[in-house]
Amino acid sequence: MHLDFFPSRTLTLYLAKMFIVRILAVLVMLVLVLLMLDLLSTSGEILAVEGNGQSELMTYAGLRIPQLMQRFLPYSVLLATIIALITLNQNSEVIAMKAAGLSAHQVLAPLLLTAGLVALVSFGFNERIVTRSTATLKAWEATEFGKVPEESDVKANVYLTDGTNILTARTVTGRGADIRLGDVTWYRRAPNGQIVEQVRASNARFVAPGWQLENPQSFDVGTASSSTASERVVGEGLTPAQIELEAIDPDATPFWILTASIDAYEAVGKRTAELRAKWWHKISGPLSAFLMPLLGAVAAFGLARSGQLFVRAIIGMALGFAYFVVDNAALAMGSFGGYPPFLAAWAPFFLFLLVGETVLVRTEE
């Protein structure tokens, strides 16, 4: 029996079903509670825009739910692990399994398999759904909850320099020569860096060379005078390729597109530490769900009547939440260049994998 990693097929399906049901239940509970709190704090801003109503609130909720699911799925796996293992312990099912010759690793094997499948599904969900909703929501927030962007491939808050001049745009849609900039501001500066003119426009399109502003409104700093025109071309040194590079948001960019973007950044000699750390974390983040059964495993063992079950559950939760703290800190250090990108994304995972395995072996095996 000890040579087989998994218990019997019946027991494996029983434990896996119990685990997945609790994961979904905890995830739904967390998402609903956090979504309601989020709506309470944001609904005022959405409804303050003329014309917005219940449909816009539902749109916001639809865009936020995938983000909440992405962020709190590992927490759900951790809490589901502790709930499932405490239930098994209190019902003496763990004692029965160990009396039948199963090791601690064999008891956890169905949970680890289920968590691995959840991590795989989570990766696909994040890259296909969450990135699109994040891009659309950020673009909508950039317009202060005005018109909802129709495209999912939308980027927000782009800042570029053309010599001493500056071009900013709240939204960027499209690719290549079809790129459209929204809520554009052009700052013309003197060689000493002082702003001499500010030009605002609702939209801009690429006209090779330069970007044609639609109905621009300019303000001359020197004369303190304003003027309007039907169109104006600015930023002749800026190309669509530069716009696309500057508009990269790793949270709103799928894994395969971010890979090409990092290569393009490196080709022009730009710093890629932050992007590379986020690229690695797109893999290690979902995989953290696989760690949770191991970190919460201490709740499965020990006598339920000894009074230690509650303490073991607290230890499991502490190990799980400690992982998330260390993971966020390491990712922040990687973004600042304090850690190499690979180390920033993967060091917490392997560290807590060893910690969880050590605790399990030393206490139960």
From TrEMBL:
<protein>
    <submittedName>
        <fullName>LPS export ABC transporter permease LptG</fullName>
    </submittedName>
</protein>
<dbReference type="GO" id="GO:0043190">
    <property type="term" value="C:ATP-binding cassette (ABC) transporter complex"/>
</dbReference>
<dbReference type="GO" id="GO:0055085">
    <property type="term" value="P:transmembrane transport"/>
</dbReference>
<keyword id="KW-1133">Transmembrane helix</keyword>
<feature type="transmembrane region" description="Helical">
    <location>
        <begin position="108"/>
        <end position="125"/>
    </location>
</feature>
<dbReference type="InterPro" id="IPR005495">
    <property type="entry name" value="LptG/LptF_permease"/>
</dbReference>
<feature type="transmembrane region" description="Helical">
    <location>
        <begin position="338"/>
        <end position="356"/>
    </location>
</feature>
<dbReference type="GO" id="GO:0015920">
    <property type="term" value="P:lipopolysaccharide transport"/>
</dbReference>
<keyword id="KW-0472">Membrane</keyword>
<dbReference type="Pfam" id="PF03739">
    <property type="entry name" value="LptF_LptG"/>
</dbReference>
<feature type="transmembrane region" description="Helical">
    <location>
        <begin position="283"/>
        <end position="303"/>
    </location>
</feature>
<keyword id="KW-1003">Cell membrane</keyword>
<keyword id="KW-0812">Transmembrane</keyword>
<feature type="transmembrane region" description="Helical">
    <location>
        <begin position="72"/>
        <end position="88"/>
    </location>
</feature>
<dbReference type="InterPro" id="IPR030923">
    <property type="entry name" value="LptG"/>
</dbReference>
<feature type="transmembrane region" description="Helical">
    <location>
        <begin position="12"/>
        <end position="37"/>
    </location>
</feature>
<feature type="transmembrane region" description="Helical">
    <location>
        <begin position="309"/>
        <end position="326"/>
    </location>
</feature>
